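Quick check before the chapter quiz. The format below is the same one you will see on the exam, so make sure you can read both the input and the output lines.
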Amino acid sequence: MSEPFVRPDAPLCIVDLHYDAPLAGIDARMAEHVAWLTQGYAADLILASGRKVPRTGGIIVIRGDAARIEELVATDPFVAGGLARATVTPFTASMAAPALAELLA
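Here is the expected output.
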């Protein structure tokens, strides 16, 4: 078994989106939100994203310091449109599974 990847300087954030609007409003802006996510993936910032279960919001794992991520998240169509609020929780990835090492490099 490989040793876990260790890197004490990999700043990451968990973005916790909480829907403040009915799902019909969320669904109406979903294409814009997905386009925003796609830009984040293309910029090599977003590592993972998806819906909460039950569907009350979403989670995004994103690389970068909290101030930068808070600015970026403010441009998410859900947040900018007042449909959702976001909590940004920074953390430092000091260990990760070997399969994730390339994502954190």
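If your answer matched, good. Residues 30-42 form the longest helix (13 residues).
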